[in-house]
Amino acid sequence: MRDKTQANSAAAGDGLIRAGAIVFFVGAVVTLVTVAPLLLGTKPFPTYMFGMSMLMAVGFLMAGAGVLRSIAEGRRRAREIRS
Question: Which of 25, 42, 49, 50, by CA, is between 20 and 30 Å from 7?
Fold first, then answer.
């Protein structure tokens, strides 16, 4: 099986992990931008910016789903090899 798999081929879940990481970091930047006025004593951003801070949680869940998908694919391959 190893000879049929390319070394740089994308495994199942890799796309979700990458997308989740991007969404997480966008959410982290939004969170820093949203919290900065509160620490600096300036006028705070509108409420929807606090909602956009939830992108961190969404990205974390997306990446977690990608990891679980990779694990499931690995277990599926292991079962195929054994049988």
Answer: 25
Distance CA 45, CA 33 (A): 9
Q: How many whole angstroms separate alpha carbon 30 and alpha carbon 20?
A: 15
DSSP output for 23-83:
HHHHHHHHHHHHHHHHHHTSPPPPHHHHHHTTHHHHHHHHHHHHHHHHHHHHHHHHHHHH-
pTM for the model: 0.78
Q: Is 44 left (phi over 0), alpha (psi -120 to 50) or beta?
A: beta
CA separation for the pair 74, 72 (Å, rounded): 5
Contacts of residue 13, defined as CB under 8 A and 6 or more positions apart, other chains included, come to 65, 66, 67, 68, 69, 70, 71, 73
